[in-house]
Amino acid sequence: MEVIITKDYDQMSKVAADIIADQIKRRPNCVLGLATGGTPVGTYKELIRRHKEGKLDFSKVVTFNLDEYVGLPVTHDQSYHYFMHDNLFNHVNVAPQNVHVPPGMAPDIEAACAWYEQEIDKAGGIDLQLLGIGGDGHIAFNEPGSSLASRTRLKTLTEETIKDNARFFEKESDVPRFAVTMGVGTILEARKLLLIANGKKKAKVTAEFIEGPITSQITATALQLHPNAVVVLDEEAASELKQRDYYKWVYAQKPKVAEAVKA
Ligand code: F6R
């Protein structure tokens, strides 16, 4: 796992946008997996800025979002469908037919989950999956105890997630209790993973998922199983990592390593 420690949220967002932009430039018709929540807002702003400057073309990009609340219509301003349009899709030239968000209002959720998995397969799999991490260590809505082989399915949210996400709703009781989420197994099939985290609140769980044992109690630890995972942190989120200085040293050596590989 590559760990990149940046000085603050803005730098974290820029580095994450660099990685995504690089993916789009290398393969303009790439398949991106996308996340919602507070963390990626700065990354999306940066991608929008680059698009508006004419430096980034989304016209052939295909997207799949990680998750969606069950029971919120797409017009609800807290649905992840709405969030993605508001924070990214409405501001770039992505083709509407290339955008996929898990269906949280499907009459048959199980069938809808199977359909979502098929759509990812049909698109050729995900090239780059953007992730955040929940306070309880979840990736997407894979709450503690989720199988590390799980596929897209309905999950019941933990009390911690409901409390964390209450900040986006008028009151805690408005937060949906269920979500449709890609599974950990689905996420691990992406060719590259990019997890971003910032702030002191994420420091403990960040240290646990990078340096602790792999466990379904902290589903982000599954990133340790992936051969091509990058984690971009700000100083605060990185503050409890034991090997913090080593990760910084490795990052600083990167240009030299690239030279050595070329020679
Ligand atoms: C959202 C998602 C979640 C969030 C996580 C962190 O699509 O998959 O796993 O990434 O809950 O949320 P924030 O960024 O709001 O701290």
Spans of at least 5 consecutive residues whose pLDDT stays below 50 are none
Strand elements, count: 10
Order of helices and strands: EHEHEEHEHEEHEHEHEHH
Helix content: 25-40%
Overall mean pLDDT stands at 97
Structural class: alpha/beta
CATH class: Alpha Beta
Rounded to an integer in angstroms, the radius of gyration calculated over CA atoms is 18 Å
Percent of residues in beta strands: 15-25%
Q: What is the helix tally?
A: 9
**CATH architect. name:** 3-Layer(aba) Sandwich
How many domains in all?
A: 1
Intertermini distance: 24 Å
Brief summary of the model shown:
It contains nine helices and ten strands.
Structure explained in plain terms:
The chain has a 7-stranded parallel beta sheet with strand order 1-10-9-6-2-3-5. A 3-stranded antiparallel beta sheet has the order 4-8-7. The relative contact order is 0.17. It is α/β, with parallel strands linked by helices and 263 residues long. It has 9 helices and 10 strands. The model has no long low-confidence stretch (mean pLDDT 97). Strand 2, helix 2 and strand 3 (62-65) form a beta-alpha-beta unit. It has one domain: 3-Layer(aba) Sandwich (Rossmann fold), CATH 3.40.50.1360. Helix 1 crosses helix 2. It has helices at 9-26, 41-52, 80-87, 109-122, 159-165, 184-188, 203-211, 235-238, 244-262, and strands at residues 2-6, 31-34, 62-65, 67-69, 99-100, 128-131, 153-156, 178-181, 192-197, 229-234. The structure holds fructose -6-phosphate (F6R).
